[in-house]
Amino acid sequence: MTNPESVVPAAGDYSKEEADEYHLTPAEADRLLANAKWRRFAVMGDSLAEGLGEESPGYRSVTWSDRTRDALIRRMPDLAFLNVGLRDLIASEVREQQLARVLEFEPDLVALVAGGNDLFRKDFDPADVEAELDQIVGPLRAAGADVVMFALMNISAAIPEVAALKPNMELLNARIRAVAARHGALLVDMWNHPGCASRDMFSSDLMHSSMRGHALLGAETIRRLGVYLASG
Prior knowledge:
single chain, alpha/beta, hydrolase
């Protein structure tokens, strides 16, 4: 269940967050989600789902999924929330370890972040990852849940040291887009977002989002949900 205290910002100086060109104000989020009726929100996947990331001075240390949850709670105060995200998992492990638990929760909205860790395997096969994602998204959609998927940010735009990963990241994103289209899932496509070029969107490990990156992803997730709600 949700913790009502989690939707109240902690005291502090968040001037950078409020002045950020990609910032989404609570009022804007409320407008976008005015027609939201989701009552059971689940998050699943790897470390980005779990919420890893270094602090960003001037930003709240609140993950993208918690930002999304908090905005939804303002619309539906009785929202139930489950996050089973866990670092280091590849797509097949997300399916094996998390899918049954999420289905048991009976969500009507699911956010899925998976596939990024597969990139670091010597036997990385985009087709295999696509098949695993199919086997996650298909059952969720069949159970009646709206599913949100994410195309990875182009971290090489800000960090040239990881440019070697770019071709495989593009291959993975193409498969993620294909799965989303096939199953009617919502896609938050971060690849060409201008924020990718900002080094402070990422943690010093060159893998995870910083809290500024989480703020950006939370804003774009809410915006995508808003577009979906406005469409019908």
